[in-house]
Amino acid sequence: MTIRVAIQHKTTYEFDRFINVAPHVLRLQPAAHSRTKIHAYSLKVLPETHFINVQQDPFGNFQTRLVFPEKTNKLEFYVEVIADMTVINPFDFFVESYAEEYPFAYDKALKKELDPYLQVTESCPLLDKWLSTVDRKNTPINDFLVAINSRLAADIGYGIRLEPGVQTCEETLTLKKGSCRDTSWLLVQILRSLGLAARFASGYLVQLTSDVKALDGPSGPEEDFTDLHAWCEVFLPGAGWVGLDPTSGLFAGEGHIPLACTPEPASAAPITGLIDECECEFSYSNIVTRIHEDPRVTKPYAEGEWDTIKALGFAVDKQLEEGDVRLTMGGEPTFVSIDDMDSEQWNTGALGAEKLKLAKDLLIKMKQEFGANGLLHYGQGKWYPGEEVPRWALGCFWRTDGEALWNDPNYLARVDKDYKHTIKDAQAFGELLCKKLALDKQYLQSTYEDTLYYLWMEQSLPADADPTKADLKDDLERRRLAKLLSRGLSTTTGFVLPLEFDSVNNHWNSSLWPMRSDVITLIPGDSPMGYRLPLNSLPAQAEEDRIPERDPFDPRQPLANKKDNAVLDSVAKQHFAKKPAQPAPRQEKLAPQKTLKNVIRTTLCIEPRDGRLHVFMPPMTHLEHFVSILEQLEAVAKTLELPIVIEGYEPPKDPRLQKFLITPDPGVIEVNIHPAASWKELVHNTETLYRQAYLSRLGAEKFMLDGRHTGTGGGNHVTLGGRTPADSPLLRRPELLQSLVTFWQHHPGLSYLFSGMFIGPTSQAPRPDEGRDEALYEMEIAFQNMPEGFVEEPWLVDRLMRNLLVDITGNTHRSEFCIDKLYAAGSASGRQGLLEFRGFEMPPHPHMSLVQMLLLRCLVARFWKEPYKKPLVRWGTSLHDKFMLPHFVWQDVKEVVEDLQRHGFPFKLEWLAPFEEFRFPHYGRQQIDDMEIELRWAIEPWHVLGEEITGSGTARYVDSSVERLQVKLSGLTDGRYVLSCNGRRVPIRSTGRKGEYVGAVRYKAWAPPSALHPTLGTDTPLIFDLIDTWNGLSVGGCTYHVSHPGGRTYDNVPVNSNEAEARRVNRFWDHGFTQGALSPPPAFSALRSFYPNGDEPRAMAPPAEEPMNEYPHTLDLRKQYNVL
Q1: Which CA distances in Å does 51 have to 17, 90, 335, 993?
Q2: In the chain, N or C: fewer CB atoms in 10 Å?
Q3: Is the peptide bond before 47 cis (omega within 30 degrees of 0)?
């Protein structure tokens, strides 16, 4: 975002006596061709008795001539420049086709005009030697200039030199050191010697400290900095003068403000003049001060403001504690790679090699922060149709009582390291584990791959294919076959050890698996063997033998410590001594449908894979059992000195265990962060997560091709609950859910200020009143039956709301308020007492995320004291009209903040300003006398289209080709002005403030083959006219382009926020209004079909008002209205 700065430059000469001062020439006024916007310039000169004239030199530079009629003992020049540091992309230019590659020759007429800038005035052996090493083969001109500039920056060191004048090229090359003016003059001579026109530039350099420190390379100055500087400019046909700064090796950007650009350094000197001979004391200073900063996501809050936010968080904590709310807050923030925003895995694909690598790195870093004595777990995540393999899930688990879940991390193997573990290591590990668990080692049973299946696969290959070889281009099945054939099909894959805990006798039981064949044959596949067990080949399990899930509401006792477990271990060893030496023989083949008791189906698996020993954990119902087996696994690993990878089923959900999970989602990495019970914990968790993600080269923001700044696209879902399901405030007082849903329904701004790009009835988190007109009617019936106060029936809230908080297809997960983990009767995993807010997009800064959380905490505390029970509002079409505009969203959120303030929560509206700038980026302003036109991006719902046949199957595309802009006008005289867009009248509505109006334009920005209206063309560019109806003239306007107005096409998304901002700025012109006198347009709409292109001539305005009954705040350029 734009930062306005003031440059204060002071130069002082103090003489030892009064002297005569000859006329002086100052070149301290920013040049007319400065690309950095200059708002103000001021010059103050001492002595005050002087004559001043401002003129231009032959090269168009401003120069101030000063005459001092009286003697003086002091000469002082004080300059102040106010400028906007709006990002400029130094590579945003075209060149003529003949100059796209170096070498090239200037056009004859152009060369004559550039003659002063082509004169080589210095030559020396060292310069000739330097030039002889320049590669003069055909090279893209940008690459050529970058190479020359960066090489010179590396060859010549920087040094401050206070002596007047410029070193010769020979001096600079000999010393290999020089000031900025010395290196720049050397570059001028180098470029001229290479046949390129170059000039010397003198000006101000402004460098502002970065909000975020760079991971690679320098981060820039530690403090804001400015000084006089020099650089070089080269002339490229089509592009004009392009700045090169050989001191840094970079191209000139918004921080380079030219004062004078000339063929020779002497004529660009900032101050020139003569004085009498005397003793002189010289001093100067350059200071840059930020005088205005738009809210920005890299630094959303000043330190003092952030301290106030944290103080409110602690105050809200106190209220929650006094009210016995027992609130915990967690979430599912998402991240993307900061280095790769173009590949499939960071856009639409769920899986990817780089994604897994970064997730593992983040897992290790977060374990050190949150669960140093915890367990790393590599499990299986979701498996969606169309995906070859299930998604992975990386987890870290640790005990809440402070006891270690895993003592020595050296025995947790790294999944990216080859330990050379073999099947013999797996067997030794399993046999020792049997001994530790007081089980006979014959319960450890070998498993094998399905030989017949893979032999059939081998025979199915083409005759010329080598079945033992495959590459990444081959499909998954082929690669799997090659790997197994190389290893050998008869080789043991791993071992299974069926396990079940006997809670009565406090020991582990096992059994043999009765199979029809003599071996246990795994199901073909790539997953760990624990997911490929032939469970269907086991005898049917009797109903009474099934172990039910543990009820999440069951009370839990504190976990045993290591001493207690040692006692249990001794008991198990006594039990082992009583065991027979041989287990019972295998059972005979069973008749169909016959059940067999005492066959344990849950099994621990030990498998060497990719040089690592993997231990697959079976599903368990009690955390105590999981902790017990984990201690034995660590003891075996330590005894055999075999690091292992723990995979398979996660520990059972239990409040005595904390965890975070890292999983893949389309285009993002999702982190299921553990819940926090206090504001202090929440701040620590959020700041730590963002910091460690950044150090793992993961970011919380993305950029679209046109430069639009967005979140990751994966959301930042927030969960509300309690330490245990029984503590959940939503189950204890169901009216809290009613209050939240009602308040959100009353304030659409809460839905749209924090949302992502995709909103509407088919989005991931639709509002209850989006797409289902009768939903509010049915919801009011449910609210009538909602009990007041505390309840003893935790299932009641689920029964009342389950079928209402859904999307239009009945999906409970795709809802703004998701309650599928609140108290779902179907499974224990659905009875967690959690409410999930799914409408939040990922904020790019941790403090913004925490402000979101604080807003929710304030609302929970407010509704806990005073439930919010009001009639629901039928917004109708205004939901996707009025509340799509940032002005009305902001006004609505203002009402929310005022409500909180009335109830004793001093939440400030300005804390949400970074969200407004992030969600509704500012595109440009145009000042016309005392009136202003401001353009901002507005929200546009996306529609899911009908099914289409694609190369990979049936697809339903989402139409994002339509966009919306908000236009805000201020300073208008009521009834005098009309705003038009492309010749049509924009419906502007008064904001309640005198002279201020707001409206919207909906237009088709792109023309993809699949769209809601594929036959309609685009409506861009958008030309806005402010029409004076009293005089029949357009008094001014502006133009907005959807793409680069010069026709540049971008192949990649912006690499950072600077490039993104430059792309956005380029699309707005503060000119382009309709010329000439205006006359009312004829009614051409009836003749539209007779025009060659199907469109009537654009009106010269003032256009007639068009009836827009359904969307009164929006002009839809796609639709033709009957003119009133």
Answers
A1: 22, 39, 62, 47
A2: C
A3: yes
pLDDT digits (tens, 9 = 90+) for 722-756: 999 999 999 999 999 999 999 999 999 999 999 98
Asked, as a colleague might, if the bond just before 1021 is cis with ω within 30 of 0, I would say: yes
Q: What is the pLDDT of residue 597?
A: 60
ω into residue 734 within 30 of 0, thus cis? Answer: no
Instruction: Give residue-wise pLDDT tens across range 626-661.
Output: 999 999 999 999 999 999 999 999 999 999 999 999
**Residues 185 and 166 sit within 8 Å (Cβ to Cβ):** yes
Take residue 570 and report the two structure tokens written for it: 């001794």
Rounded to 5 degrees, what are φ and ψ at 358? -70, -35
- Residues 85-111 as b/e (b if ≥16 CB within 10 A, e otherwise) read bbbbbbebebbeeebbbbebebeeeee
Q: Please tell me what DSSP assigns to residue 468.
A: T
How far is the C-alpha of 129 from the C-alpha of 125, rounded, in Å? 6
Query: Mean of the pLDDT values across residues 760-787?
Result: 90
Question: Six-digit token pair at 145?
Answer: 């200039």
**pLDDT given for residue 1004 in this prediction:** 94
Q: Which residue has the tokens 């051409």?
A: 1084
Q: Which residue has the tokens 């790294």?
A: 414
Report the candidate in 902, 875, 934 with the shortest Cα–Cα distance to residue 749.
875
Please determine, for residue 466, whether its predicted confidence score (pLDDT) is greater than 80.
Answer: no
The answer to whether the CB of 639 falls within 8 A of the CB of 292 is no
Separation of alpha carbons 232 and 268, rounded Å? 12
Q: Is pLDDT above 50 for 582? A: no
Residue span(s) of the chain under CATH 3.10.620.30 come to: 103-256
d(C-alpha 1095, C-alpha 433), whole Å = 81
Dihedral-angle region of residue 833 (phi above 0 means left; psi in -120 to 50 means alpha; beta otherwise): left
Rounded mean pLDDT of 366-388? 88
What type of residue is 1072?
G
Q: Which fold has domain 103-256?
A: C8orf32 fold (3.10.620)
Burial class for 524, CB neighbours closer than 10 Å (0-12, 13-18, 19+): middle
Task: Give the separation between CA 833 and CA 795, rounded to whole angstroms.
Answer: 10
